[in-house]
Amino acid sequence: MAGSDRDDMLRDMAANRGCKLVKSRRRTPGSGDFGRYGLRDAKSGQDVYGFGSEGLTATAEEIETYLRGGLRASWKQSLRTAPDLPRAEPKKAPKAEPGRSGSPAVSKRTAAPPPPPPAPPPQPQLVVREAAPRDADAVSALLGELGFPTEAGAIRRRLPELRRAGTPPLVADEAGVIGVLTWHVMPVLHRPTPVGRVSMMVVTAMARGRGVGAALLAEAEARIAAAGCSLVEVTSNIELGGAHAFYRAHGYERTSYRFAKRLGGDS
């Protein structure tokens, strides 16, 4: 008879006599009371048969024999005449066989734990550096996002001039260029020191809100201060309301209007 069928039979027999069949929850052969059973009073929950200090002790055959022949007249009678509970015999340790080195060999090896999962790859670090000709394609794409489409070839031609002026554009690099900023230093007559200016900054849409713009601006301010400027201005299109809030959050105030006039040629 299959195990599940026999269990069903034993449950029915136990229920007919006011009992509840209890089966071990162990699922590993040889561990604890695996494959053992017990009987419990269905109403009071009192242990009746097959319970020991180490758990369940009765086999399926013992439970069946008890249910068929151990009950004489009624359930109360069976409680008075229940035989001694069978006790599980203590397990004997398997004999060790001598190993190659003369020490006892382990008869059952414990499975080695699975290897730990591989460490996640390190996150790329954000680096603010001077723009290089190799960045032209990425910078061209960023200027397109800003609304100033510029070919990569034109960017490569303009970079050397800005470098010679001592104001190289800055890029934010995080396993690829994700932001760019241009800055300038203007000697002026009406102030005792030159004026620094951030003329353009853009961060790709997918990287906004993560401090990339703040890192670019901080590097530009440090370079402008090192050039002897005591004031830094920002030019920002009047339609870019989000950019205005960004600069205000970093301590900038609106101090004047900016006027522009096209003179023709390449503008």
Task: Please characterize this protein's 3D structure.
The chain is of the alpha+beta class and 267 residues long. It has seven helices and twelve strands. The strands form four sheets. Strands 8-9-10-11-12 form a five-stranded mixed β-sheet. A three-stranded antiparallel β-sheet has the order 1-2-3. Strands 4-5 form a two-stranded antiparallel sheet. About 2% of the residues have low confidence.
| Silhouette | rod-shaped
List unreliable stretches of 5+ residues.
71-76
Distance between the termini: 93 Å
Instruction: Provide the structure class.
Output: alpha+beta
Keywords:
3-stranded antiparallel β-sheet, alpha+beta, 5-stranded mixed β-sheet, single chain, about 20% strand, about 270 residues, about 30% helix
Task: Sum this structure up briefly.
By secondary structure, the protein is α+β, with helices and mostly antiparallel strands.
Architecture blueprint of SSEs:
Elements lengths: L2 H14 L2 E5 L13 E5 L5 E3 L1 E2 L2 E2 L3 H10 L5 H7 L15 E2 L5 E2 L21 E4 L5 H11 L5 H13 L5 E4 L3 E10 L8 E9 L8 H15 L4 E4 L6 H9 L18
Parallel strand pairs: 11-12
Antiparallel strand pairs: 1-2, 2-3, 4-5, 6-7, 8-9, 9-10, 10-11
Helix pairs in contact: 1-2, 4-5
